[in-house]
Design a protein that fits this description.
Layout: H1 6-12, H2 29-46, E1 49-53, E2 56-60, E3 82-84, E4 95-97, E5 100-106, H3 112-116, H4 121-130, E6 132-135, E7 144-149, H5 152-170, E8 177-182, H6 186-203, E9 221-227, H7 232-254, E10 259-268, E11 278-285, H8 291-306, E12 319-324, H9 357-362, E13 367-373, E14 375-380, E15 392-397
Antiparallel strand pairs: 1-2, 2-3, 4-5, 5-7, 6-7, 8-9, 8-14, 10-11, 10-13, 11-12, 14-15
Helix pairs in contact: 4-5, 7-8
Length: 399
């Protein structure tokens, strides 16, 4: 019996009149899956991902990434080619020298290893493909990445690829800081403890409800946005950006006075009240105005435009977490953002949801108190100050 080659088998199959039709007669699940993957790859090529870096927008060409067992994905990762999509790459500052051309890149030292790659492979590949030389400070030393080459276009190409690598791996770093209002005034802490006491008294028989899932009252806060700050320079940049927000619009919205708000009412963050993971208190202006929402949304927008906050939402949810099932195993967990350890390793958090129906029914309009919000803080995760709250690396005051 003659065994057909793979090419003969492929040629004997009927052609697809519709490229989206994966239902070939007698085709296997594997074949259908492969066909759909090919269609997905074609769509990626036709409509590649756009990456915005410093006001420039680039197309990211799709490549197949491989992860090997016992090796970190980050250690030998090369992003591939990128091309300018909207603005010319010549906007980079490239200096002509007697030896050719030179360009520098500022980056935190924690990200140098991603440009070097395992055994220096990423840097070598960049240098060969762009015909440049790339100098990177030693680990632990702050400085600039220096790109030199005989041709301006090669230096620009290397700079573009390094920018994409830096952005890619920055997004893989665990959040280090967050912008927030503190909501831990004495009255609110007392009311929160009263809420906890009454919930445990009336609902402790409900599935999953116990004292371990309540927030630490000293850490009650309203998050505006999460940050990845990898150097003192970036912390200073964040402080300056916050000060600019104050001068340009915060003072106008606040009138130079604290914003008086109420923390009252509770809501949950998933679809089934019988299986709740996060329960939060609502925060709103006492005078019924929209000033707090406008202020935090404009701060978020400004930080997203600068690249300091990755855009996920167009608006801030005004809330304060009061119960979270992640606290059950880790009292220091910080909601959905606690997906990485302090050294950047991904961790999976198993959650045992709780039945929140009685809590929502009995405490729907629970009053936690009135606060005067006078400061936005740059808070550091995994730290505690002398008052038991997150340590603040900087702040701006309204009055």
């Amino acid at each position: 019996m003659k065994v057909k080659s793979e090419r003969e088998v492929a040629q004997s199959r009927p052609a697809l009149s519709n490229p989206m039709d994966c239902s070939l007669p007698g085709s296997s699940i594997h074949g259908i899956f492969q066909a759909c993957i090919k269609i997905h790859i074609i769509m990626e090529v036709l409509r590649p991902q756009l990456i915005k870096i410093g006001g420039r927008v680039y197309r990211k060409n799709p490549i197949q990434e491989q992860t090997y067992q016992h090796e970190e994905e980050d250690d030998d990762y090369y992003q591939g080619l990128v091309e300018c999509a909207e603005e010319p790459c010549e906007t980079y500052e490239v200096v002509q020298t007697p030896q050719g051309f030179r360009c520098t890149v500022k980056a935190p030292s924690l990200l140098y290893k991603h440009i070097v790659g395992k055994r220096g492979d990423t840097r070598k590949k960049l240098e060969v493909e762009t015909k440049t030389s790339i100098s990177i400070p030693k680990p632990g030393q702050e400085g600039e990445i220096v790109i030199t080459g005989q041709h301006r276009s090669g230096v620009v190409s290397a700079r573009t690829r390094i920018d994409v690598l830096l952005l890619t791996f920055r997004r893989k770093q665990p959040f280090t800081h967050f912008l927030a209002f503190f909501l831990n005034e004495a009255e609110v802490q007392e009311r929160f403890l009263k809420f906890q006491e009454e919930v445990l008294e009336k609902c402790s028989m409900d599935h999953g409800v116990d004292s371990s899932i309540f927030q630490n009252p000293k850490k009650l806060h309203l998050t505006i946005g999460m940050l990845v700050l990898l150097s003192e320079q970036e912390i200073q940049q964040t402080c300056e950006m916050l000060q600019q927000c104050k001068e340009e619009f915060i003072d106008d919205i606040s009138g130079g006075k604290p914003l008086e708000v109420e923390m009252s009412g509770i809501e949950y963050m998933n679809d089934d009240p019988g299986m709740v993971d996060v329960l939060y208190a609502k925060v709103h202006m006492k005078d019924g105005s929209n000033r707090l929402q406008e202020l935090v949304d404009r701060v978020l927008e400004r930080f997203q435009a600068s690249g300091l906050i990755v855009k996920e939402w167009n608006s801030v949810k005004l809330h304060a977490t009061v119960m979270n099932t992640l606290f059950r195993k880790d009292p220091n967990a910080e909601g959905r953002y606690n997906l990485y350890t302090a050294d950047g390793k991904y961790i999976f958090k198993e959650r045992e949801s709780f039945d929140g129906r009685n809590i929502l029914k009995l405490f729907e309009n629970f009053y936690f108190g009135t606060l005067k919000l006078n400061s936005i803080h740059i808070s550091q995760r995994f730290t505690v100050d002398s008052f038991g709250n997150y340590a603040s690396c900087g702040q701006i005051d309204f009055s």
